[in-house]
Amino acid sequence: MNAGFTVAGEHILWTDLVGNIASLAVVWLAMRKTMWTWPVQLAGALLLLAASIDAHVPGNALKQALFCGLACYGWFSWARGARDHHDLLVRPATARERVLLLGTLVVGTVAVAELFVNLTWLHIAWSPWVNAYIFVGSAVATFAQSRALVDFWIIWMLVDLAGVPLALKSGLYVSGAVYGVFFVLVLLGFSRWRREYRDRQLAAPITAAAAPADR
């Protein structure tokens, strides 16, 4: 797992590099709503799980393990949505869903931070709160993604703001650099999904008005 190469005196793990390339690919694939999003995310999570174990970052390792499960859930959720509508329909979260997502983020962060503080074997000495925020935020974002909610892009933006310093502090330099690129791609993805939803809403009255004439 510790195979890699050296750049400017820093050891770069192949698992960290390839895993993060897969993570960037996931954003590009998610923008296009392709089912390949989920197997690529699963592969990237497995590679980053190995990198986190080698870097002795158990909090991030737990996050990647969670991603493996969410990737499987996302696959079945998108497959069901595409089967029901012939295309995956994206939409904004309802007010109730947003309250639940934000509530889970806040309560989950507090609970996981306390867990990280008390479980000393996890060795999360540097800011367990940041680790907990990224852990829970990533899970919430991925769940919202599996539900085809436009809001998942916003949650990812918030997670990215904490991801860069944490990755650099942990010695995962590739991950730190990727977080910056990831942020830009997430902005593009948010714009694309939101535009698609708005275009569908604008087209709906036209389609409804044309329906009687077709009959």
UniProtKB/TrEMBL annotation:
Subcellular location: Cell membrane
One GO cellular component term: plasma membrane
One matching Pfam family: NMN_transporter
Family: Belongs to the nicotinamide ribonucleoside (NR) uptake permease (TC 4.B.1) family.
Annotated InterPro entries: NMN_transpt_PnuC
Positions of transmembrane segments: 12-31, 38-55, 61-78, 99-117, 172-190
Primary location class: membrane
Tagged with keyword Transcription regulation: no
Source species: Nocardia pseudobrasiliensis
Protein's UniProt name: Nicotinamide mononucleotide transporter
Gene Ontology MF annotations: nicotinamide riboside transmembrane transporter activity
UniProt keyword list: Cell membrane, Membrane, Transmembrane, Transmembrane helix, Transport
Membrane disposition: Multi-pass membrane protein
